[in-house]
Structures are given as C-alpha cells and as structure tokens.
Amino acid sequence: MNRGITLLLIGLVAIATGCGNDKVKSIDDIPSGISWASILSKASDLQTLAEPVSSSASAKMFSSSLSTNKVMLANLAPQIIGDIDYGFFSEITEGKDGIRATLAEFNGPGVVTWVWSANPIGTLNLYVDNQDHPVLTMPFAEFLGGRFLPVQGPFSSETALGHNLNFPIVHAKHCKLVVTAPRRSDLSELYYQVAWQSLPTGVEIHPFDVAAIKQQSGLLKALGRRLRVISKSCEPASVDATTFKRIEYSIQPGQSLELFRAKGPQAIAAIRFIGKSKSDLNGLWIKGVWDGEVCVQSPLHVLAGVSSDMEDTESFPATVDGSQLVLRWFMPFATEGQVLCTNTTDRICKLTIDVWTHPIDASLYPLRFHANFLTYKRLQAGVCNILTLADVSGPRRFAGCTLGVDSRSDKWWGEGDNIIWLDDTNSPALHGTGTEDYFGFAWCSKGIFNHPFRGQTMVASTPYHAIANMHRYHILDTLPFQKWGRFQFQAWGNGTGEMDWSTSVIWYSINRKK
After folding, report:
1. How far apart are CA 108 and CA 237, in angstroms?
2. What's the pLDDT tens digit per position in 352-398?
3. Which of these, 32, 191, 282, 373, could form a disulfide with 118 (CB 3.0-4.6 Å)?
4. 243-366, CATH topology level
5. Which CATH architecture has domain 371-509?
6. pTM of the full predicted structure?
7. Is the pLDDT of residue 453 over 80?
8. 123 - beta bridge partners?
9. Cα 318–chain centre separation
10. How far is CA 455 from the centre of its chain?
11. Topology adopted by domain 55-206
12. Exposure letters 395-422 (e unless 16+ CB within 10 A, then b)
C-alpha cells in the first residue's frame, strides 16, 4: 500500500471515530434498514452503480418549468424570460396566511435526493408520511442552506449562485414540499427543482427526523468528510482487497498503447495518470473494452469533467491536481477488461499509469461502465436545437454528464433545458429549468466551483465569445430505468450567433454481448 493511501485511510478513520459523544459516530455503525445515513454511505461507494437495477426502481423530478397539469404564476412576473422555466407549481391554495404553492409531492416509499433553487423565497413546509402536519418549517433559503443539519457541507452548498441541498429526505408513504408566501406575486418568479427516486417495498425505512439526525451528527460529519477528502485526493475511493500496478509509458504522436489488460472477474477501482506536466495529459483518447465490447470512447479530459486545458478539479469520481488525474469510476468485467490510450497530439506524451483492481463476484456487478463523446458544430444560438446525447435500452442507470460550450454569441448561451426520459415515452421524468441549473449553479454565473457531485471548472469570455466547461454526476440521485432511457439537452441561447458543444454521458448497463 502506498503512502498516500495509508494517510488517506488514517484520516478517514480519525474522522469517523473522533467526532465527540454522538449516539452514532462511525461509518461502520449505520443502523440497519434504509435511512439518510445508508443512502449517503451508498453514494460514497461507486461500486453500487454497477449493481443490478431493481425492477421497481424509478426516478423523477418536479420543477418550476412549464408543463401540463400545473398552475401558473409566471404571468404575474414583470417580464417573461426565455421559455418560462419559473412560476409553475403542482398546486396553489390561498388562505388567511397567504399563498401556498406545492413544489413537489411523492407517494410510496422514496427519497428526495436534490432540491435546488436560483432564488429561494418564502417559507418551506416539509411533510413526511403524516400529510397533515409539517415535520419541518423554515425559510426556503435556510432549508437549502441545510440549517436543519448539524453539519452543512457538502450536503448544502451555494455554487455560483445556485442553492443546492444534496441530503436524503427519506419517506415511507408520502412526501410533500410546500412554499408559503404573503402574495401570489412573491412566488411568480421562483425557480426550483426537486429530484426524487423510489425505495424498495418490504424493507425497514427510517423516515426523515430532524432530532434523530442531530443525535447522529458525528456520523453525518464522517460521511461528509469522506466525500470531501476523497474528492481532493488522487487516490482510489476504496482500497479493500486491491492490487496496485504501476507502469511508465512514452507514447509517440498518433500511437495507441494498451495501458491495461486482465482476465476477470475483476474490477478497476481507479486509474491514475501522472504526466511530467499537464501537457502530457492533454490530447489523450481513452478506449475501454469490457468483456469484448467497446464501452468507453472519450478524451481523457472529458472523463475527468474538465476542458482540454486540464484545469484542476475536485469531484468524487474524478480529481485533477496539477499533472495528476485520477478516475475513480468503478469498472467491472466478467471475462476480460482492456484499456487503450491514443496520443492525438504532435508531441511525445510521457506518462506513469497506476491501476488499482480487485476481484469481484460478477453476478453482483452485472452492469458495465459506459462513456460516450459527442460534438456538435456551428449550432445556431437563437434556435432550440434538441440534442440527444444518449438513447439506450435498459435496464441501466445514468450516472453523469459533462458539457463544454464554445459560444460566439452576443448573449447567454444556456437558455435550453435538460430533458431526461426514463421508460415513459409520453412524458420526461426530468425536465429542468435551464442548462446551468442542471449543473447546480444559476443566473449564467461565471463562477468557478467544485463539489463532490458537480462543478464548473473553466469560464472564459469576451463580449461576443464565451467558453465554459462543467460536469454533474448522478451518484446520490441516480437515474435508473427498466427498458429505455434518453438523455437530451436543448442547445439554445438568448441571442444570435453560433456555438459548438462537446459532451459526454456516463451510464452503467448490461453489455449486449454475453
């Protein structure tokens, strides 16, 4: 075991066991059943992405965007912006205390995994299981700020003007989020998104309970620190029963080399690329073949969620730190796994490659890691271009998306929405409120930010030219489907001009070859 992993593990053990006199202090002490703690623990184990998709698993999202069966307040706003992504609610009632607007309502066992707003206003009332009385009432901005939690980060964060709550709100029967405000016009410009996924029936479920969460503040702190520490490191997420191998390469211009080949059943736990400088990492193309099927074809920088400039970034699946880049995506294979690398530059790339692997029971991890890469040139900014980034059959789960934009326009390029279809061909499961909103920020912010689940790593602009790069990973809010899934974006701007998009979707699925 190398020194970096040893120090990382020592730090995590200290975090998990040194958090005061709380009722539950260690990640190993998570109660049985499904709870906020078990869901967060699962999110910090990327191996679970390769597990089978349950036949009952589903996901959906409520948002403020225009759709059928919604009540509109956006007509009260002083101006209509773009395609009206704000001021729509599932239900609106009025009483002596003002206006009550329902953001989202879910039935059956499930968990709210992500709540976002660009401009939280009013008071949030959270109903869990008991539909008559809220279990939590507080200003919407404070709710998204995680003020009900003993530890806020990284579960609550304001990233480039976007207010995000990534904390599991578990319910056994019912969940409802309602915002109250004195006047209808107060909510007419509210942007919001609420993501949800189902939980299995017939299992023990521990519903959302503020008092219980505070009693387990040490455990919450340990889980949060684990996400942050690993995101900042250039080490694997786990070193359980791993085999470590290091090889040095000198790849000529245009040359392709095999970086890894092994018989299964095994899994790659992490791959680390170390160059003499960042330029050695730029221009590398990665191809992953699992059990005889090509599943990964992408530039290395795209797999890390950054631009070709290889800017530093900190996320749970991938980290770039100077001339080091580590991918922590779990990559299992049953018979054989192979990773190839092509140098697409006109210079020699000198690399040290570290690979961590460990044996697996292939029946427990039937899904394979996939990543594509698509480019779209000279899109018209003033036209709603609907781009299909992935159209695949199930059972699978979407796990992330990266996006790089080069816009030659006089206004904001990201007016379009993300539209994700999961099995239902009549209605998308997720219809967002804007490109930047999907990635967790807002208001066309040029702010650079890093978070374990998302980031905007690079922004450069002149009056008529804007370049940006961003990523989001569906780790806590996975997107499972049984038969069919489609991942789309509306490439659309507020002005005139042209733009280029480069993008990748990451998913886990059963290979076509058996």
Report:
1. 33
2. 999 999 999 999 999 999 999 999 999 999 999 999 999 999 899 99
3. 191
4. Jelly Rolls (2.60.120)
5. Sandwich (2.60)
6. 0.92
7. yes
8. 139, 180
9. 12
10. 9
11. Jelly Rolls (2.60.120)
12. bbbbbbbbbbbbbbbebbbbbbbbbbbb
